[in-house]
Amino acid sequence: MVRQCPVATFFGKEPFLRKSRDMRGFSLIASTLCFCASPALAQEIAVLYNARPPYAVESGGGVTGLIGDPVTAAFKKAGVPFKWEASPINRQLSQIKDSAAPVCGAGWYRNAEREAYAQFTESVYQGKPHLILTRKDSAAAGHRTIDALLADAKIIVLTKGGLSYGPFIDEKLAKAASEKNVTTQENIGMASMIAAGRADLMFMAGEEGEELLKAPELAGKGLILSPLDGMPPAGKRHLMCSRSVPAAVIEALNRAITTP
Fold this sequence. Notes:
The protein is α/β, with parallel strands linked by helices. It is 37% helix and 24% strand. It has three domains: 32 residues, no CATH class; 111 residues, D-Maltodextrin-Binding Protein, domain 2 (3-Layer(aba) Sandwich); 97 residues, 3-Layer(aba) Sandwich (D-Maltodextrin-Binding Protein, domain 2).
């Protein structure tokens, strides 16, 4: 798929050539033409996503949502061809780490472990502070701070394997006295585990928790969202890309993301 460059089309017209006698102006336009024709920017990028409202919502063959919309806008604005590709969370990690093809995952937190094998764009989204999804009758609902919560050795915290909850929560979890239960379930399955008493809580950004509790499968299960005092905004989410994505593509996306 070759990207069309409107500047190149206009440049070839006779009226433009008559108006472009100034060599500095000519040099600037020529540089722009070279940029538009860059093979790196013409290469299609697979953008991996995991359907997860309200962040990534499948719609009309594309992906919308709090992360889907700004990612789509960034690629279109940068002029980089792309295609959405559904992929589970853990598979995305291996695809980005091992794939020789240019791929990016949408909406990932940035941390040192991932920086060892991936490259990141500027942030595409930052969410509300995390809270906990728990049962009304759980001891977890009685704790008002994350430190008190994770100091409770009787509580079981449910986490998703391969998923980061942002540096603030990740660091707290690493030092927690609470038991940690790691699962490969998606949000609905994790919430059902908590409702069944197999764990006491899971961390979620506010907007994600509100969307999750709308699911018919969770109606009448006694689940609640409980805020914690002193929680910072959720971590910034980025496009996390394989090393095979050209630097020119990352730069073009960053310009598109940061330029109003």
